[in-house]
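Reader question, answered in our methods column.
A reader sent in the components of a multi-part assembly and asked whether the whole thing could be modeled at once rather than chain by chain. We filled in our standard form and ran it. Here is what they sent:
COMPLEX SIZE: two components
ENTRIES:
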Amino acid sequence: MRQAFINTLMELAEEDDSIYLLTGDAGFTILERFRDRFPGRYYNVGIAEAAMIGLAAGLAMSGKTVFVYSIVPFVTMRCFEQVRVDLCYQKLPVKLVGVGQGVTYGTAGATHHAIEDIAVMRALPNMTVICPGGPIETKKAVAASLDLTGPCYIRLGKSGEPTVHKSEDISFAIGRGIRVREGVGVALVATSNMVPTAVAAADLLEKEGWKPEVISMHTVKPIDRELLAATAGRCPLIATLEEHNLIGGLGSAVAEVILADDLHARLITFGIPDQYAPVAGSQEYLRDLFGLLPEQVAEVIRDKLKEKIVSGKP
Amino acid sequence: MNTAEISREIRQRLVRMHQTGSHFGSAMSIVDILTVLYFRVMNIASPDDPGRDRFILSKGHATSAWYTTLARKGFVDEKVLDTYLKDGGQLYGHPVRGGVPGVEASTGSLGHGINIASGIALAGKNDGRDYRVYVLMGDGEIQEGSVWEGAILAARLKLDNLVAIVDANNLQGFDRVEKIQPIRTFRKKWEAFEWGAREVDGHDHDQLERALREAPFVPGAPSVVIARTTKCKGVKEMEDCFESHYLSVPKDKVECYCRELEEEQ
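And here is the structure of the entire assembly that came back:
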């Protein structure tokens, strides 16, 4: 996803000389090509995130299209109040790009995990929150972000994430979820790099005769209410999947829509319980710990489907 | 230009405006700085001229002085000043970008202005424009860590088109500034961060003008003018009182203060 981001940004920057890239001293093996190709439009601001956001705001006020890159906690929470006042309050189209979504940097410990970022970014007026579900969506999201008039947060993983799309020819629009697989009875609504997990869990359920729908909800804010309404019409059970605290993220956003729009669906939320990782562990290990592997997700959904209250079997 | 007269008018207007709300003393403190900037130093024919010099009020709580200066400059209708802090209006107690012509940035949370100013200054240099960016901070405000992140950054970017002004009135929200951090070392601190620095009497228009015109003080470096000021300057019984940060002007004192300002000339 990091490569998809920088490759896309390089292409865009060739065409658009207003594009600037700021980094908070992160980006080893990723940003060098941009730095070397566009030296006057690349700044390593240093380990100074508050200053970096203010600088980005001033550049944006002067007509620049600014991307700000760092590890998620440092580009969202370390400088939260600068993001709030300088970018959101002033409604400036600065693009925050965070790498290391969820527990991507598992063994690094919770300082480097990103499990509250969607919740806090979502609470900011004027902020758009985009969590691409793989490299193809990343590419599309970065390009589409140029059209936004306010700030956005683009939440990325690292490298080597699989894509669930067969080709780059997908219909992508900010604020519109993507139906990856049509189904009936149950829908798996996933964001960020839990989309491949949703597909894998759906594969397991399909083998047992269920027909799960899978949605990549790459934009968590504004969330696609229409798609959720249409989905709830066919799927009385909705499961959300995210590598994020169960409080305030995708699951909360979907729950808000179910309640506010009076959708007739039950909701199961898969995510990280309200805690920091209690042990060192790889992303895979921590996903296992938090019940986020495809087999674990499929098992919980299967049990719900078998409950009488939901007759999901086609 | 007789800027003393302009400053007096602005202070009298502030006395009338501040029958409600806080930060009367903070506003009175910076009137001379704003007057010298807008009427002697800055190149700003209109508030939306792309080539204009920029001013950012980082100590946003003193915004009534900015609104009043912009009105005196002719960018804002004088009548709009009557809506200060009024329900449904745009004259908030802290400035909001776009709310009033000439307000460049939304501030109010301290320690933000310097970095926004650096971004505008950097864009100006990269685009080959010769505008300058002025940012006014409080002496309490520079306790914020983001100011010193910004000090490192602006020096490293060689923003010699950036001029910071510190309104050094030695009073902050709940104490003397010098009880929180030493104030005599301000200049050394900025110089240690590789800024050119000057200290002036922040109520002396000629001293202010000279310093602001002579910047950059060090070639290729950003500049800071430490303006030694008196909080609530112009109203003797509230001068240098930290209560003037909070208290409004009592109704029965308005004419008395305005007369005092008249007689001072």
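What stands out: The longest strand of chain A covers residues 237-245. The CA atoms of residues 232 and 263 of chain A lie 6 Å apart.
Send us your own complexes using the same form.
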